[in-house]
């Protein structure tokens, strides 16, 4: 097994264990039986099939379009390679995420992620089964691997997943740091660079009227900086009291996973 896969599994295991011990991993407030089904199916399909498949297709497409350019970027400086992933993966994911919340049929593919009435490591990959097939960042990542950036991608994806897991977990690692006044200048920088539990839980909040929820913003995954740069950031250092979708009727697990093939 590749080292990055081991690292990713270890990250999930650490967060899952911490939630099991501190916030009851399997019994979140407001959860229903269908939540566990959606989370298990969507996460397994993504990790076993969708992500490897799209990475492969992205590489094959790059090879077809640029047959003489394989590994042509392998000797670029590491910082430049990281920059390419931040732009073509993370920034592209920001724009896809933002578009998803503003185009109805795209939101149907992403809605399962917000249907959960709780934050948890469990919802990191909770989405419709077709959602990740349309994620440009994975296609671009496959192409960049073809161009010789595979080693950097292995480190990049581990760091990105660590930040994303920390932002979705209900452990709220940033809360004790906010309480220390001497750390406030550091946290001012941190919360504007990467996604944190406070900024990302605001995106998952249920009621806009609570003064914290901002589901039409705070779209960043690894970098929250994209929200700051493109004007969609809300930073309150607080957390919504309720999570989920506002003013929408409940839907079945089958619809969440298989829309538009299955409609309630």
Describe this entry's structure for a reader.
- With 264 residues, this protein is mainly α.
- It has one domain (3-258).
- It contains 10 helices and no strands.
- The chain has helices spanning 3-22, 33-65, 78-100, 104-115, 136-168, 175-178, 184-193, 197-204, 225-230, 253-258.
- Helix 1 (3-22) runs parallel beside helix 5 (136-168) and helix 2 packs antiparallel against helix 5.
- The protein is globular.
- It starts with a helix and ends in a 6-residue tail after the last helix.
- The mean pLDDT is 96.
List keywords for this structure.
mainly alpha
Shape descriptor reads: globular
Mean pLDDT: 96
Strand fraction: under 5%
Main sheet, how many strands, which sense, barrel? none
Number of domains: 1
Radius of gyration of CA atoms, rounded to a whole number: 18 Å
């Amino acid at each position: 097994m590749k080292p990055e896969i081991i690292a990713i599994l270890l990250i999930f295991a650490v967060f899952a264990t911490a939630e099991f011990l501190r916030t009851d991993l399997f019994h979140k407030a407001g959860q229903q039986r269908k939540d566990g089904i959606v989370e298990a199916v969507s996460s397994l399909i993504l990790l076993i099939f969708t992500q490897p498949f799209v990475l492969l297709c992205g590489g094959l497409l790059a090879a077809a379009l640029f047959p003489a350019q394989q590994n042509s970027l392998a000797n670029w400086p590491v910082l430049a390679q990281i920059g390419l992933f931040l732009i073509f993966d993370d920034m592209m994911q920001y724009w896809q995420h933002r578009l998803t919340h503003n185009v109805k049929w795209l939101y149907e593919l992403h809605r399962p992620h917000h249907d959960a009435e709780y934050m948890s490591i469990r919802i990191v990959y909770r989405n419709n089964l077709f959602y990740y097939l349309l994620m440009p960042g994975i296609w671009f990542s496959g192409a960049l691997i073809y161009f010789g950036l595979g080693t950097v991608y292995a480190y990049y994806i581990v760091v990105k997943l660590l930040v994303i897991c920390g932002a979705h977990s209900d452990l709220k690692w940033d809360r004790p740091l906010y309480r220390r006044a001497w750390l406030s200048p550091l946290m001012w920088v941190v919360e504007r660079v990467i996604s944190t539990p406070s900024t990302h839980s605001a995106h998952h909040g249920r009621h806009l009227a609570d003064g914290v929820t901002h589901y039409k913003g705070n779209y960043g995954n690894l970098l929250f900086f994209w929200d700051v740069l493109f004007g969609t950031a809300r930073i309150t250092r607080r957390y919504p009291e309720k999570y989920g979708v506002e003013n929408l009727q409940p839907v079945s697990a089958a619809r969440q996973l298989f829309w538009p093939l299955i409609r309630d």
